[in-house]
Amino acid sequence: MVAKRHPLPTIGAALLALLLIAFPAATGQHRSAEVRAAEIGQQVNQLSDRDPNAGRTLAWSASQDFRKEGERVLAGRFGLQALKLDAEVNAWQRLARDGLTARDELSKELDGDGIALFYNLLLHAQGMVGDREGQQKSVKAYIEKTVAMSGEDSKSEIMARIIGAYSFLETGDTQEGFIRLQSALRHAAAGKNYGLTLSEYTTAAQSFADSGQMAAAEAFYTEGLGTNAAKIESRELATLWFEYSRFLQRSGGDIDATLRTAQTAREMLQRQYGETSEEAISGGDNLASFLVNNGAVASGLNIQEEIYQTALSSLGNDVPLTWRTANNYAEALRMVDHPEVARGIDEALLKLRITHYGHASIQALVSASNLGLDLLALGDRDGALKAFEEQRKIGLEIADPHSEHAAQGERWKEYTQAYFLRYARMDNKSLEDMAAIKDWRSAPDLMRIKTAQLAAEQFEMRDDTKRALALRQEAYEISKGAFGELHPLTFDALLEVATTHMRRKDAETLQSFQQLDERMFDWMLREVGSSGNRYVAETTRRLADDMLRTFGEFALSSPEAATLYADSVARWKTMESGERTRLRMAAETTTNPDMHKLAETVVRLLGQQQELLSSGDVDTEVRQILTELKATRDRLPKSLGQNIATQSVEDVLGTNAAMVDFFVSSRRARNGDANSADSRLQAIVRRKGEAPAIFDLGALGTIVRQAAAEENPDRRFGKLYQSLFGPLKGVLEDRTQLYIVPDGALYSIPFAMMKTDDGRHLDEAFEVHMLTREDAIFFTPKRDRPAPGEKALVVGDLKYWHQRPLPFTRREIHDVGNDLKAAGLDVVSLSGTTGMEVPIRKASADASIIHLATHGFFDADTDEETTDALWRSGLIVAGKVAAQEPDANDNDGILYARELMNWDLSSTDLVVLSACQTALGDPSRIGNVRGLPTALAIAGARRSLLTLWSVDDEGTANFMARYYQILTEDKLDYAAALRRTRIEAISGKIDKASDPSLWAAFVLFEG
Q1: 872 neighbors 858 (Cβ within 8 angstroms)
Q2: Strands 943-947 and 1002-1006
Q3: How many CB atoms lie within 10 A of CB 693?
Q4: Which of 483, 517, 812, 892 is packed most tightly, with the most Cβ within 10 A?
Q5: Among 50, 111, 136, which Cα is nearest to 85's?
Q6: What integer is the mean pLDDT of 692-701?
Q7: Alpha-carbon dihedral 959, 965, 966, 967, rounded to 10 degrees
Q8: Cis, bond preceding 807 (omega within 30 deg of 0)
């Protein structure tokens, strides 16, 4: 969307619009004069094609003749044509002389449009010959004429003042022109021609910006937005906001101010033109591009995708505006490391643009370059070279002497060839040429960054780490200047700097990693925690993996980094700021029941927000959660949770205890490095009064494969124990209490089956607690066993519609209910058809123990791209199971994890899902596995006793009955009771439960 522009400062462009105005038809009464005029006009045109001066002479003579005959309209027509021909041959002296001579006559002979063209020609000519006095008089005469014709403050008068001002600007008198233009616009602003006023402020600002006078342009934009005309919303106002936002982006204005301007413009364009209009799409595209380019990638990508889809559906795929939105969407996807999605868009765009604009077009060149970058990131060397060669050829065809398009294509080809031979040593000249590209100001910023980084690798191969560090620092500065400090590309560049510091053993190494960690984490909290986007969520953790992998290597050899690194891992595994933990602590310490409930609600909503936004599942429900979260948070005192004394894990651990926090890290694959993407397993061991100990346990895939190769289960899990805990033997010696925090795929491993060197199972060697996060240790000692007067909900022996019955659940819930009643708990039982979703949810309110004996499921085979893990896991309850897509339906007989996540289980100390596969889910980048474990934790349950696989109905009933008996009679805590129950099952004391397929299936997550 481009507003009209007035002439400034090129003569040809200045007159083009006005010279295209059609002459009025003759209205004289003498047909013979009209016939002669037609014949003369034809002669003038023929002469002008060969000799403009001869055509001009004939036209001027005809004008004088028709004037003598009283044919004013014809006289005016030919007089204006003569002056137009003067302008075409730059005969400014003659135009100024004759125009001034005939001014009074032509003013009577021409209509409004003709008069505007005449004065534009005359004023320009007077300016070109330096007749400033005559120019000023002509402006005055022009204004007086428009007032006489249309009245004061009319549009014609306003335009006369404005055109007069531009005549000074375009002929070199910038100071006078600026003063006159400012005066003319202020005169317009004082009247009621609001639309014209705003349009002309927009045009003035654009014109000065185009000529490089940014301060003057800024002044016109801000003054225009401060007029009375800007107090009433209109299409012209929307256009002014839009162009101002584009100006601020080009001029590098304040980021916050630019963002507000772009948001205002988009919203106003939507209201004025409709959300599917080209104007509104342009406004959204402008806002999205700004956000992405300044680090707000999640919200920018969300808008960019929305705008692209809107353009496709409302405009179609054969419109250039749709292609622009597609181009910017693909650009954003590349920035967050998703070239596999961008590639399809860029391939289609290249074909469309070549067909529409031709091969020798800047649009085709951009798409060829973008496609090359996609293929480069995807590891397709030949494809990338082909695309960059296409870019080079297009650059040659464009043949723009002021650009270096072809040279850029050639440089990308050279970079690609070197990139795929990273470990091959470049010759010295090629290396220096590569290193020099960073100083090539006309090169794309991305090229300058990447070539500097590749050259740095080559200098490191030569042991010239000083030169390598300098190049990486320059690449970082380029990225910071182009994209901002908080941007994925800048994070990558800063990681390269930190890595080089590490290799050089520089004193700045730890500070570099700490700085990078803090900036990335702040960015993550903003991006994932406020906007949410599936691509950004994935990229965020990948960025963190890259950083933590290298930071971890440094921490392994640098004890001073151990604590900072361990704390960083703990933060990134939860991807939280610590607010939830502080509020949980505040909820437990406050004596105000209302504040207690509010704090618990905020904790739950924060969990829902993080889960849904990090998965990119942004829908109406998410927006409702965000609204509710803000409203609830606003009701909390600002001081709540701020004065909580912060303790470290080491402070809480007993002298006989240790925490093992496993961390699975990976690094993004790079060409030429076959092992770069292999996930590695680390163990961070925390003990009271000591710094964390960091252990690299090796490649996770290798650990699992080696254990799986053992056919005998005891040897298999003995080997697994050796791989995971063997290297920790020195720091676990004399420890009897073990807190384990799994990560990723480790959540699906039955730790209970592991055997120590002396043949004991893990539960026999240690008092084990399985935590979902490090800070869970602050809460595990609290509310850790049932108490008289509390409420318990027991559900089982349900009537299913399509599932096989579970007959032993009748005895299970009977025994469990009796044990809890004997311990003084108020027990509510649901069975048969009463165990439907709504009654279960209502009965779970304020229950400290919830026991559900039913069918569970996790569907690991469904395409993860189309069905979220929380919709692929759940429980079967009473009710008619409908054959439909997963949905939040209270009566469909299925309680999905996604539905359960929205329950309020803040009062629940223990949830037992005595069902199959309830501990399973997709490996998650946040917390534990995405499935029922995630849903229960977010809903507020402190502990969940779940199963890793399908279990026998009768054996489970017996195991559960014994668990509750031990729990209530021996008054043990929940974890200790499970440990003793498992040991009894191992020793054969529980009927039908002695096989590991049953007792090892149960895992108690505390978090």
Answers
A1: yes
A2: antiparallel
A3: 19
A4: 812
A5: 50
A6: 94
A7: 100
A8: no
In whole angstroms, give the CA distance from residue 305 to residue 330.
9
Q: Are 133 and 100 in contact (CB under 8 A)?
A: no
Q: What is the pLDDT of residues 511-532, one digit of tens each?
A: 999 999 999 998 888 886 666 6
Backbone dihedral angles phi then psi of residue 577, each to the nearest 5 degrees: -85, -10
- The DSSP bridge partners found for residue 696 are 682
Q: What is the DSSP pairing of strand 873-876 with strand 894-896? A: antiparallel
Q: In 3D, which of 772, 272, 295 has the Cα closest to residue 522?
A: 295
Query: How many Å apart are CA 440 and CA 86, to the nearest integer?
Result: 45
Instruction: Give dist(CA 145, CA 139) in Å, integer.
Output: 10
Question: Band of the pLDDT at 543, cuts 50, 70, 90?
Answer: confident
Find the DSSP H helices in 171-213.
Answer: 174-189, 194-210
pLDDT, tens only, 209-250: 998 899 999 999 999 999 999 999 999 999 999 999 999 998
Long-range contacts of 279-282 (CB under 8 A, 24+ apart): 279/1, 279/235, 279/238, 279/239, 279/242, 281/307, 281/310, 281/311, 281/314, 281/315, 281/321, 281/325, 282/1, 282/242, 282/321
Which comes out higher in pLDDT, residue 390 or 887?
390
Residue matched to tokens 């000519």:
125
Cα 106 to chain centroid distance, Å, stands at: 61
Would you tell me how many other CB atoms lie within 10 Å of the CB of residue 724? 23
Q: Both tokens of residue 177?
A: 């022109």
CA distance 967 to 947: 19
pLDDT surpassing 50 at residue 2? no
Q: If you search the block for the tokens 């900036």, which residue do you land on?
A: 519
For the stretch 454-499, pLDDT in tens is 999 999 999 999 999 999 999 999 999 988 898 999 999 999 999 9
Q: Mean pLDDT throughout 126-130?
A: 91
- Name residues whose C-beta falls within 8 Å of residue 593's C-beta, 6 or more positions apart in sequence: none
